Amino acid sequence: MLEEILDIRNVQRAFRRVTANKGASGIDGMQTDELRDYLNTNWQTLRSCILSGDYRPSAVRKVEIPKNGGGNRMLGIPTVIDRLIQQSIFQWLSPKYEGDFSSNSYGFRPGRNAHQAVLKAQEYLNSGYTWVVELDLDKFFDRVNHDKLMYLLSGKIKDKRTLKLIRLYLSTGIMEDGLVSPRTEGMPQGSPFSPLLSNIILHELDTKLEERGHHFVRYADDCSVYLRSRKSAHRVIASISVYLEDCLKLKVNKEKSKVSRPSQSSLLGFSFYGSKAGWKMRIAAKSISAIKEKIREHTRRNRPVPLNERTTKLKEIIHGWVNYFSIAEAKSQMVKLDEMLRTRLRIVLWKQWKSITGRARNLMKMGVVKLRAYQLANTRKGYCRTANSPTLLTTLDKKFFIGLGLDGFGNYYYWKTTHQTKLF
Fold it and tell me: pTM for the full model?
C-alpha cells in the first residue's frame, strides 16, 4: 500500500494540488515554489526513507485565527514536504472510504457541499421533523482519540508501514515560540488529510444515527438531528451525548448542544422561518453580525486606504458572502446591509475631504450648488448625521458607488438569485 501511495503518478498529482493551494510555509521556511527543485534533487532519498520506516515528520507550526463566535481556532501548518506526503496519503485513502460514508454526511467530500446539507435540513423540516437536536463537539480537532482513530483505520489499511506513518503524523509535535509541544490526542487543522480523518471517526456517529432511523445532516463536526417531538429530541440528545463521550472519546459541549425549534436553530450560518409555503431558509443572526463587523473593519475612517482599494476589497467580500447565502430568502437583509455600507463609505469620504474648502469643492463637482455646498461643509454635525443628510444621500447615492464598481449586496444578490443555475 505504501508503494502505491508513493507511486510517481500519485505524488505528481499531490504536487500539483499542494503547489496550487500555495499556503504558508512550515517551520523550515520552505515555500511551495521551492518544492519542485527540492524533489528533483531529493525525491529518491526521501521515498526510500519513508519506505524503510526511517522518516520522521517535522513539527507543525502553530497559528491561531479568530473564530466568529469568539476565541481562537488553532491551526497547525505542516512543512511543504509533509503536506505533499499527506496529500498523497489522502488521495490514495479517500476513494477507499468514500463509498462507505453516509449520504447524510456533506463535509469535505467530492460533489457535496454546505448548501446541500442546509437544503436537506429544510426538506426534513417540511416533512414534519421540526424539533432540532444541535450537537456541538467541544474542540473536536483537538480531542480526537488517536487509539480510537487508528483502530478504525486498521480495519481498512493492512499495511503496517502506512499505519505507522499516519500515527507519526497524528503525534507530531506543535512548535510555538521555538518550543515543540508533544501531541497525545487530536489532529491539527491545516493538514491535507485531517478532514478525511475527521469523517472517518465521525462516520461512527452517522452509523449509530442511521441504525436508530434518525433524520440528520452532518457537515464535519456540525451535526443536527431532526425529530417529530420534543420528548424524542431530549431523549436523543442525552443518548447520543453518552455515545460520543463513552464510545468515540469525544467531548460534547453541554452549553452549546441543545434542543431547539427551527427558527432558533442554526446550521452552517443559516436558520429557518415558517411561512404559508412551509419552512424557508434565512441567514442566521450570527452570520449577519459577522458580516457587519467585517464591513466596519474595512470602512474605518482612520484607515488611510485609497477609495479604489477599499471598494475592490469590499466587492470581494460582498461577492463571496452573497455567493454563499444566495440560497436564503434575504432581500430585506441585503438592502439593510447596503444602507449600512453606503453610510460608512460616506463617512470615509467626508473624512478624506478634510477641509471646508475641499468638502465644498467636491460637493460642487457632484452638482451641489455653491451655497448649499458651503453650508454643509461648515456643518457642526457629527460624521454619521452628516453622512445621512439629504445632500449626501442624493449625491453619494447608490448610483455613485455603482460607478466606482461597488454593486453592493442587494444588486449582486438579485443578479445571483435570478441567474444562478439549479445545482440540486
Answer: 0.88
Q: How many other β-carbons are positioned within 10 Å of the β-carbon of residue 130?
A: 21
For residue 222, the cross-strand partners are: 136, 219
Using a 10 angstrom Cβ sphere, with 0-12 exposed, 13-18 middle and 19 or more buried, the burial of residue 345 is buried
Number of C-beta neighbours around residue 71 at 10 A: 9
Tens of each residue's pLDDT in the chain, 424 residues: 899 999 999 999 999 999 998 888 888 889 999 999 999 999 999 999 999 999 999 998 888 777 766 667 778 889 999 999 999 999 999 999 999 999 999 999 999 999 999 999 999 999 999 999 999 998 898 889 999 999 999 999 999 999 999 999 999 888 877 788 888 888 878 788 889 999 999 999 999 999 999 999 999 999 999 999 999 999 999 999 999 999 999 999 999 999 999 999 999 999 999 999 999 999 999 999 999 999 999 999 888 888 899 999 999 999 999 999 999 999 999 999 999 999 999 999 999 999 999 999 999 999 999 999 999 999 999 999 999 999 999 999 999 999 999 999 999 999 998 876 544 3
Task: Give the three-state DSSP class for 74.
Answer: strand
Set of cell numbers at residue 189: 487543522
Interatomic CA distance for residues 350 and 353, integer angstroms: 5
- Angle between helix 285-298 and helix 331-353 axes, rounded to 10 deg: 20
Using an 8 Å Cβ cutoff, are 27 and 61 in contact? yes
> Which residue in 47, 58, 50, 54 sits closest to 25, CA to CA?
58
Residue 273, beta-bridge partner list: 280
DSSP 5: H
CA-closest candidate to residue 295, choices 275, 317, 278 = 317
Query: What whole-number distance in Å separates Cα of residue 29 and Cα of residue 24?
Result: 9
Which contiguous run of DSSP H or E holds residue 222?
Answer: strand 222-227
Cβ count near 277 (within 10 Å): 7
| CA angle centred on 294, ends 267 and 381, rounded to 5° | 130
Q: Supply angle C-alpha 363, 383, 344, rounded to 5.
A: 85
CB 409 within 8 A of CB 317: no
Q: How many CB atoms lie within 10 A of CB 35?
A: 18
User: What whole-number distance in Å separates Cα of residue 357 and Cα of residue 81?
Assistant: 59
